[in-house]
Amino acid sequence: MYRIITNILKVILKMRGAFIIVNKENLPKNPGYIIACTHRGWVDVVALGAAILPEQIHFMAKKELFRNALFSRFLTAINAFPVDRKNPGTSSIRVPIQLLKNGKNVGIFPSGTRTSEEAPLKRGAVTIAKMGKVPIVPAAYSGPTNLKELFTNKKIKIIIGNPLIFEYESNNRHEIDDNTTRLSEVFRALEKSIN
Description:
Blueprint: H1 2-15, E1 19-22, E2 34-37, H2 42-51, E3 58-62, H3 69-77, E4 80-83, H4 90-101, E5 106-108, H5 124-132, E6 136-142, H6 147-150, E7 156-160, H7 173-194
Parallel strand pairs: 1-7, 2-5, 2-6, 3-4, 3-5
Antiparallel strand pairs: 6-7
């Protein structure tokens, strides 16, 4: 179901105008990685899923999105799983780590929110990468952020960076913070090159 929906969405995105994917060759050959992307609106979620086809992404999504039964079924069909952002606990980490161990790709938007401003990154992506012992593939999105903008000639562009493999020597929080800062710097560089 995922591939059918995502391929249909990809065709729609291409029909409306330019849909450019830069450096797709940076994706690891074997699945089981985190793809972390900048987040400006719901369109970037669709575009990212379409950009890495035939690979699939299992997206973390705030649990509030699953309240509507019909929309919940749609989210499940596109491999989204709920996360409690207000009370993140072990379950917020357990599900993505299990997916990664099963060779699935996990999509995370480390800013944790849709914003046109630069938001500080949350530590979740780096924490999950550490616990799952997997690389983070950084990506940046440029293009429409909402339904209205989707019907303009604004180009959709996704740039994929080199996989990041962080070194961890201890269990302290400083390493997580330092690596989150590094990820943030990579995002800034990708966004600069995409615009």
